[in-house]
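INFO batch 0412 | record 1 of 1 | parsing
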Amino acid sequence: MNDIKVMGCLKPTYNKSLILSRLGYDKHRTAISNESLRGIGRLITYAENTLSIMATYRIIDISYIDSPRVVLEDGTILSGKKLSELLKNSCQALVMGATGGAKIMELIEQLQVEGKMSDAVVIDAAASEITDSALDFVMSIVGQYLKPRGKFLTKMRFSPGYGDFEITQQKDFYRLLEAQNLGIKLNEACLLIPEKSVFAIAGICGEKE
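INFO prediction complete | emitting tokens
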């Protein structure tokens, strides 16, 4: 399973309450009418139908960890204290990425041009959460593969830009995943294009095969 896997036309399950949280709603503190909820629900569905989600992943051995450095089998060096802590009991790493495609950003930009800023904000939040949910799907698939082999994934995953896991390390993920095959580009600031794209890493615990 060390080869790069690519999955297209994904419709990952997602938690609508997390989209509401991205919008600043707190069910214990924020009052929102049923009419508003229905409107938000329609926009979330609109976002879901506009997204064209693809995901990719690979499993790679970890050679050694010398905090904050994590050295992968191909010589790639990742760096981050929290990252090395996450992976300290892992013999391998799951490197993964997902993208929502270009059309969703075109929709958001069009809504902004039309002055429909509130709609654009909801679509943006929904697109972010749904695309991120594709990584949950990847972890679920890989977790099922690992279980009969006596292995398991760390519960958490980290993305470049989290804490001292610097955004510049997107370059390593881009190369490891050959992300250009998903239509993803990396700009000079190491930001992903389309914007609704994400990379992450999780640990695999258990003995190597």
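INFO post-check: The CA atoms of residues 110 and 159 lie 29 Å apart.
INFO record closed
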